[in-house]
Design a protein that fits this description.
15 helices, globular, alpha/beta
Length: 374
């Protein structure tokens, strides 16, 4: 065999192997990008989609053209099923959960602008943390959002590894997301240790806050809110004819109780009131905003070692999310069950807390058992 023949055969062999790898990855589809070949026991379960979600979801949005979307961080990605009838207007709106784990406000704002630019969005639900909501340079982010290189998901070693992992874990694993983008996260795990970790972390933060007089800092922050990003989101929604609904992420009552003990809760409610006033002023009452802080059988439910309403003290399961969606979008209800307007009074919250604690004397003992201070 001559050197020339060797090179030709090697090249042919290499490209044949590359083609076979590409075909294999295309069929397995570990990134859940093509979505046209799903065989039970082979590739129907997509346990690795989590690693691709940030890159693939924008492409799916452009391809599927949803009309109702959910945006925010992991709280929204885990907590809301976009197929909820109240949210998708009983299947009249094609819906998608377009939230992303660990997404900051800057990313959420840019994801919103990307969505309304690339799809005919009619309804958007956006989660946020009460505080500064500054403007973001979305033009810079648009250079990467939705730019998926198909070579990376077909012809690379990592793509082959993901395909093999997908096949290997068909029986032992479950999908990380639903087809519409909802994230399962730790849904089937014992929530007890996750609650303990959240509460112990909050206690540690509380001790630091009290030592640094955080309450005065919180008050000064409330007087200097940067809501330029929220303003842009409202104006973008108005320009595109989008029904914009905002909500402050809820917490389990155990965390609410620690927030009260740590101080600064009054400043937080002042911040929510100022954001609500800003929204009303900017949108002329067209944008709705809600909060779900409260003491009730959902937010204060005792934690067991079995799956319940909460995965930890901040991440709520879609069973809670469904109640929230019905509160926010079911117009036939006389009064929401859990939702309260964002500008609702702190005094009402404290009154509800007092009434709940009086009627549930076991609350304190359950909370003490949870974080087990020694």
């Amino acid at each position: 065999m001559t050197s020339r023949q060797f090179v030709i055969r090697f090249a042919l062999g290499y490209f044949l192997l590359l083609a076979l790898i590409g075909i294999f990855n295309r069929i397995v589809d570990p990134a859940w990008y093509y979505r046209d070949t799903e065989i039970k026991g082979f590739n129907a379960v997509k346990p690795t989609f989590l690693d691709f979600a940030r890159d693939v979801k924008p492409v799916l949005l452009m391809r599927d053209q949803p009309e109702a979307i959910i945006l925010g961080s992991s709280y929204a990605e885990i907590g809301f099923d976009p197929t909820n009838p109240s949210f998708n207007d009983h299947d009249r709106l094609k819906s998608m959960n377009f939230a992303f784990a660990k997404a900051l406000w800057s990313e959420v704002q840019c994801d919103f602008e990307f969505a309304v630019t690339h799809s005919n969005i009619k309804r958007a639900l956006v989660g946020f943390h009460p505080g500064n909501l500054p403007i973001s340079n979305c033009e810079k982010d648009f250079a990467t959002i939705g730019q998926l290189n198909t070579i990376d998901i077909l012809l690379t070693y990592s793509a082959l590894w993901y395909s093999i992992e997908t096949i290997k874990h068909q029986q032992a694993s479950s999908a990380s997301h639903t087809r519409e983008g909802m994230f399962f996260y730790n849904r089937d795990r014992n929530p007890f240790p996750f609650f303990q970790e959240d509460l112990r972390t909050r206690i540690s933060e509380c001790q630091k806050d009290l030592n640094s007089s955080v309450s005065s800092t919180a008050s000064s922050t409330a007087n200097a809110l940067d809501l330029s990003g929220l303003q842009r989101m409202i104006r973008t929604a108005q320009a595109h004819g989008v029904e914009l609904v905002l909500f402050a992420y809820p917490k389990h009552a155990y965390l609410l109780e620690l927030d009260k003990l740590c101080g600064g809760q009054d400043a937080q409610w002042q911040t929510m009131r100022r954001i609500a006033e800003f929204i009303d002023s900017e949108s002329r009452g067209q944008v709705r905003a809600w909060q779900f802080y409260g003491y009730n059988d959902i937010t204060a439910k005792p934690v067991s070692k079995r799956r319940g309403y909460w995965q930890d003290a901040k991440h709520f399961n879609f069973e809670v999310g469904n109640m929230m969606l019905e509160d926010m979008f079911d117009r036939t209800r006389d009064r929401p069950a859990l939702a309260r307007p964002l500008d609702s009074g702190y005094e009402d919250f404290l009154r509800e807390r007092e009434e709940y604690l009086q009627s549930h004397p076991e609350f304190g003992a359950n909370m003490q058992t949870m974080y087990d201070i020694k």
